[in-house]
Amino acid sequence: MGSSFEVLPRGCHLGWAAGRIGSGVFGVAWSTRTGRNRARAVPADERYDVTLPLRERPAELPPEEIARLQSLCESLAREAGDLVRDRSGAVIAVADTKSSVNDVVTAVDREVEELLRARIRAERPGDAFLGEEEGASAGTTGLTWVVDPIDGTVNFLYGIPSYAVSVAVVAGEPDPRRWTPLAGCVHAVSTGATWTAGRGQGAFRDGARLRIKDAPPLGQALVGTGFGYTEERRRGQAEVVAQLLPQVRDIRRLGSVAIDLCLVADGRLDAHYERGLNPWDVAAGTLVVLEAGGVVQGLAGEPASKAMTVAGPAGLVAELSAALEAAGARELGHPDGETGR
Fold first, then answer.
1. What contacts 308, CB < 8 A, 6 or more positions away?
2. Which residue has the higher pLDDT, 131 or 58?
């Protein structure tokens, strides 16, 4: 047991604070080397607003179990995609809004999440569940299913063919700074393209193994991004884009970060950056990038968080992160209240 991992008290909020210094919030980390608790500053804009009782982290899973979980992720995502496809022919209406009037939910989002919740409950009754629309339910195994029923809901609402079902299973808390991703699948509903990954088993698109391409110079990079839904957030993001655009080949905003991350893994985008992402936005796509040989991190080599997520080949991520910081990305407003797509 040579590595360290972070834990929070049983039943606590993932943004739990043991104390404050300025705007920072302390979390608690446990070092397996020392056996002592130690405080770690967790800035408020890195925290994920998720409540889920903590369970013991499971023992390392054997490759055959990872493969079974990967297969289950894919079958669940494909079944959910069939339901989305069936519903796409009907008139789609906004059922609710979240952080702003532009941050929409449809009845199909909720129906698909309920399907996934029911299927996972039947297949894996002891596992926890975290979905974008209905939140978290606790489990007993230390594994959590992290689901986005439709990543790219606005595209779905308008009939733009860039939206996906994202299904992943992680060990530990449903917090990208703390979890260990085990398996995941992103299924692009309109095109049928399906990306899968398993921890230590590689990343695939429609069964073909992926390997992230070599990093181009920043000036030759095609970069994906996404925008928040509030007026203040968008104004700040537009200022960053205005400074970044002259430094890169071009910028794409496709509307589904799950698909964008997979496009990075298979070389159709060189990198992706975004602020304000939630666990369900990145759970499956991040593993696809990592298993394809890429990196996913925040600014200046920090862990990816709601404050910033940057994905791509290592050299380009470092160069892009520096450009984003110079453009003022770190000074953007607090990302809480943004809910992803």
1. 273, 274, 275, 298, 299, 302, 321, 324, 329, 330
2. 131
Cβ distance 206 to 160 under 8 Å?
Answer: no
Asked whether residue 21 is marked as a ligand-binding residue, the answer is no
What is the per-residue pLDDT for 74?
98
127 is in an annotated binding site: no
148 is in an annotated binding site: yes
At 337 the pLDDT is: 45
Residues 123 and 261 placed together within one structural domain of the fold: no
Mean per-residue pLDDT, 271-293: 97
CATH of the domain at 190: 3.30.540.10
Q: Is 281 annotated as a binding residue?
A: yes
Instruction: Give the number of domains in the chain.
Output: 3
Same domain? 199 vs 226? no
Percent of the chain clearing pLDDT 70 (strictly above): 75
Would the pTM of this model clear 0.85, i.e. be above it?
no
Give the active site residues: 132, 148, 150-151, 153, 281
Dump the DSSP string for 32-99: TTT--EEEEEEEGGG----B----PPPPPPPHHHHHHHHHHHHHHHHHHHHHHHHHTTSPP-EEEESS
Give the pLDDT band (50/70/90) at residue 331.
confident
